[in-house]
Specification:
Elements: E1 2-9, E2 18-26, H1 30-35, H2 46-59, E3 61-67, H3 69-76, H4 83-96, E4 105-109, H5 115-124, E5 131-135, H6 138-141, H7 143-167, H8 179-188, H9 200-217
Parallel strand pairs: 1-4, 4-5
Antiparallel strand pairs: 1-2, 2-3
Length: about 220
Protein backbone atom coordinates (compact mmCIF):
# COMPACT_ATOMS: atom_id res chain seq x y z
CA UNK A 1 0.00 0.00 0.00
CA UNK A 2 1.26 3.49 -0.85
CA UNK A 3 0.95 5.74 2.19
CA UNK A 4 1.69 9.39 2.91
CA UNK A 5 2.33 11.57 5.95
CA UNK A 6 1.73 15.31 6.38
CA UNK A 7 3.15 17.69 8.97
CA UNK A 8 4.00 21.36 9.38
CA UNK A 9 6.72 23.46 10.96
CA UNK A 10 6.56 27.06 12.13
CA UNK A 11 2.97 27.46 13.27
CA UNK A 12 3.86 29.47 16.38
CA UNK A 13 6.53 32.01 15.36
CA UNK A 14 5.79 35.70 14.72
CA UNK A 15 8.35 35.69 11.89
CA UNK A 16 8.54 33.77 8.62
CA UNK A 17 6.51 31.09 6.87
CA UNK A 18 4.64 28.01 7.93
CA UNK A 19 6.10 25.09 5.99
CA UNK A 20 4.02 22.00 5.23
CA UNK A 21 5.37 18.77 3.77
CA UNK A 22 4.05 15.47 2.51
CA UNK A 23 6.20 12.33 2.38
CA UNK A 24 5.09 9.30 0.34
CA UNK A 25 6.33 5.72 0.57
CA UNK A 26 5.35 2.12 -0.14
CA UNK A 27 4.43 0.73 3.28
CA UNK A 28 6.86 -2.17 2.84
CA UNK A 29 9.74 0.34 2.66
CA UNK A 30 9.03 1.91 6.09
CA UNK A 31 11.98 -0.02 7.63
CA UNK A 32 14.24 2.17 5.44
CA UNK A 33 13.04 5.21 7.39
CA UNK A 34 13.47 3.40 10.68
CA UNK A 35 17.02 2.41 9.69
CA UNK A 36 18.12 6.03 9.25
CA UNK A 37 16.57 7.05 12.59
CA UNK A 38 13.44 8.92 11.47
CA UNK A 39 11.09 10.11 14.22
CA UNK A 40 9.33 13.32 15.22
CA UNK A 41 11.68 16.16 14.20
CA UNK A 42 11.41 17.70 17.68
CA UNK A 43 13.24 14.63 19.07
CA UNK A 44 16.17 14.95 16.65
CA UNK A 45 19.11 17.35 16.85
CA UNK A 46 19.46 19.95 14.07
CA UNK A 47 22.63 18.24 12.82
CA UNK A 48 20.86 14.88 12.53
CA UNK A 49 17.87 16.46 10.81
CA UNK A 50 20.24 17.97 8.24
CA UNK A 51 21.84 14.56 7.74
CA UNK A 52 18.49 12.80 7.36
CA UNK A 53 16.73 15.15 4.96
CA UNK A 54 18.77 14.04 1.95
CA UNK A 55 18.19 10.39 2.85
CA UNK A 56 14.43 10.97 3.24
CA UNK A 57 14.30 12.66 -0.14
CA UNK A 58 15.94 9.60 -1.69
CA UNK A 59 13.64 7.11 0.04
CA UNK A 60 10.33 9.01 -0.32
CA UNK A 61 8.45 10.99 -2.90
CA UNK A 62 7.67 14.35 -1.35
CA UNK A 63 6.38 17.88 -1.81
CA UNK A 64 6.94 20.95 0.36
CA UNK A 65 4.84 24.13 0.43
CA UNK A 66 5.77 27.32 2.31
CA UNK A 67 2.96 29.69 3.31
CA UNK A 68 4.16 33.26 3.77
CA UNK A 69 3.20 35.76 6.49
CA UNK A 70 0.73 37.67 4.28
CA UNK A 71 -1.32 34.52 3.60
CA UNK A 72 -1.13 33.51 7.26
CA UNK A 73 -2.38 36.96 8.34
CA UNK A 74 -5.16 36.83 5.78
CA UNK A 75 -6.42 33.51 7.19
CA UNK A 76 -6.08 34.50 10.86
CA UNK A 77 -7.94 37.79 10.37
CA UNK A 78 -10.60 36.38 8.03
CA UNK A 79 -14.21 35.99 9.14
CA UNK A 80 -14.63 32.84 7.05
CA UNK A 81 -11.46 30.85 7.68
CA UNK A 82 -8.65 30.45 10.23
CA UNK A 83 -5.16 29.00 10.64
CA UNK A 84 -6.43 25.42 10.96
CA UNK A 85 -8.43 25.65 7.75
CA UNK A 86 -5.47 27.25 5.99
CA UNK A 87 -3.37 24.24 6.97
CA UNK A 88 -6.14 21.91 5.82
CA UNK A 89 -6.34 23.71 2.45
CA UNK A 90 -2.59 23.30 1.93
CA UNK A 91 -2.77 19.71 3.18
CA UNK A 92 -5.52 18.95 0.65
CA UNK A 93 -3.40 20.41 -2.13
CA UNK A 94 -0.47 18.22 -1.09
CA UNK A 95 -2.69 15.12 -1.05
CA UNK A 96 -4.38 15.90 -4.36
CA UNK A 97 -0.98 16.34 -5.99
CA UNK A 98 -0.08 12.79 -4.91
CA UNK A 99 -3.11 11.09 -6.47
CA UNK A 100 -0.93 10.33 -9.50
CA UNK A 101 1.40 8.33 -7.26
CA UNK A 102 -1.42 6.08 -6.06
CA UNK A 103 -1.50 7.20 -2.41
CA UNK A 104 -4.21 5.15 -0.68
CA UNK A 105 -3.82 6.23 2.95
CA UNK A 106 -2.71 9.54 4.45
CA UNK A 107 -1.61 10.14 8.04
CA UNK A 108 -2.00 13.77 9.12
CA UNK A 109 -0.69 15.51 12.22
CA UNK A 110 -3.79 17.39 13.38
CA UNK A 111 -3.41 21.04 14.44
CA UNK A 112 -7.03 21.32 15.56
CA UNK A 113 -8.51 20.47 18.97
CA UNK A 114 -11.29 18.74 17.00
CA UNK A 115 -9.77 16.01 14.76
CA UNK A 116 -13.19 14.96 13.44
CA UNK A 117 -14.09 18.46 12.21
CA UNK A 118 -10.61 18.82 10.72
CA UNK A 119 -10.95 15.46 8.94
CA UNK A 120 -14.39 16.38 7.57
CA UNK A 121 -13.12 19.72 6.26
CA UNK A 122 -10.03 18.13 4.72
CA UNK A 123 -12.07 15.39 3.04
CA UNK A 124 -14.33 18.00 1.38
CA UNK A 125 -11.27 19.51 -0.30
CA UNK A 126 -9.95 16.27 -1.81
CA UNK A 127 -10.31 15.37 -5.46
CA UNK A 128 -10.22 11.64 -4.63
CA UNK A 129 -10.83 9.47 -1.58
CA UNK A 130 -7.78 8.05 0.18
CA UNK A 131 -8.24 6.81 3.75
CA UNK A 132 -7.43 9.60 6.23
CA UNK A 133 -5.90 9.08 9.67
CA UNK A 134 -5.94 12.49 11.36
CA UNK A 135 -4.51 12.47 14.88
CA UNK A 136 -2.68 14.56 17.43
CA UNK A 137 1.01 13.63 17.77
CA UNK A 138 0.92 11.75 14.46
CA UNK A 139 4.53 12.89 13.92
CA UNK A 140 5.41 10.90 17.05
CA UNK A 141 3.26 7.86 16.24
CA UNK A 142 3.90 7.27 12.55
CA UNK A 143 7.28 7.08 10.79
CA UNK A 144 5.97 8.59 7.56
CA UNK A 145 4.67 11.66 9.42
CA UNK A 146 8.01 11.88 11.23
CA UNK A 147 9.66 12.00 7.80
CA UNK A 148 7.31 14.82 6.74
CA UNK A 149 8.05 16.68 9.97
CA UNK A 150 11.79 16.57 9.24
CA UNK A 151 11.24 17.80 5.67
CA UNK A 152 9.11 20.69 6.96
CA UNK A 153 11.37 21.61 9.89
CA UNK A 154 14.66 21.63 7.95
CA UNK A 155 13.08 23.59 5.09
CA UNK A 156 11.72 26.20 7.52
CA UNK A 157 15.05 26.43 9.36
CA UNK A 158 16.76 27.12 6.04
CA UNK A 159 14.15 29.77 5.18
CA UNK A 160 14.75 31.52 8.50
CA UNK A 161 18.52 31.52 7.99
CA UNK A 162 18.01 32.93 4.50
CA UNK A 163 15.90 35.79 5.90
CA UNK A 164 18.61 36.63 8.43
CA UNK A 165 21.28 36.56 5.73
CA UNK A 166 19.23 38.52 3.19
CA UNK A 167 18.42 41.34 5.62
CA UNK A 168 21.62 41.06 7.66
CA UNK A 169 19.71 40.81 10.95
CA UNK A 170 19.50 38.52 13.96
CA UNK A 171 15.94 38.05 15.23
CA UNK A 172 16.60 34.88 17.23
CA UNK A 173 14.34 31.88 16.74
CA UNK A 174 11.31 33.88 15.59
CA UNK A 175 9.18 32.60 18.49
CA UNK A 176 7.48 35.26 20.65
CA UNK A 177 8.85 33.72 23.88
CA UNK A 178 12.43 34.23 22.66
CA UNK A 179 13.73 37.48 24.27
CA UNK A 180 15.86 38.25 21.18
CA UNK A 181 12.81 37.88 18.93
CA UNK A 182 10.59 39.89 21.28
CA UNK A 183 13.07 42.78 21.36
CA UNK A 184 13.55 42.65 17.59
CA UNK A 185 9.79 42.91 17.00
CA UNK A 186 9.57 45.90 19.36
CA UNK A 187 12.45 47.69 17.64
CA UNK A 188 11.76 46.78 14.00
CA UNK A 189 8.04 46.00 13.79
CA UNK A 190 7.55 48.36 10.79
CA UNK A 191 10.82 47.65 8.95
CA UNK A 192 10.32 44.19 7.39
CA UNK A 193 7.70 42.20 5.50
CA UNK A 194 8.47 38.88 7.21
CA UNK A 195 6.45 39.66 10.36
CA UNK A 196 3.08 38.02 10.99
CA UNK A 197 1.04 41.12 11.71
CA UNK A 198 -1.94 39.14 13.02
CA UNK A 199 0.15 37.90 15.97
CA UNK A 200 -0.37 39.56 19.36
CA UNK A 201 3.38 40.14 19.73
CA UNK A 202 3.49 42.29 16.59
CA UNK A 203 0.20 44.08 17.33
CA UNK A 204 1.36 45.00 20.85
CA UNK A 205 4.66 46.39 19.52
CA UNK A 206 2.89 48.41 16.81
CA UNK A 207 0.30 49.75 19.26
CA UNK A 208 2.92 50.84 21.80
CA UNK A 209 4.98 52.58 19.13
CA UNK A 210 1.90 54.33 17.76
CA UNK A 211 0.89 55.45 21.25
CA UNK A 212 4.41 56.77 21.90
CA UNK A 213 4.38 58.71 18.61
CA UNK A 214 1.03 60.30 19.46
CA UNK A 215 2.34 61.33 22.88
CA UNK A 216 5.47 62.86 21.38
CA UNK A 217 3.53 64.69 18.69
CA UNK A 218 1.38 66.25 21.41
CA UNK A 219 4.32 68.26 22.72
Amino acid sequence: MIIAGIDEAGRGPVIGPIVMAIAVIDEKDLPELEKIGVKDSKLITPANRERMIGQIKRICKYEIIAVGPADIDSAVESETTNLNWLEADVGAKLINNQQKNGVEKVFVDCPSANPKAYTDYLRQKLSYKPKLVVEHKADYKYLIVGAASILAKVTRDHAIEELKKKHNVNFGSGYPADPVTAQFVKDKYDKYDFFRKSWGTWKTAAKKAESKQKTLSGF
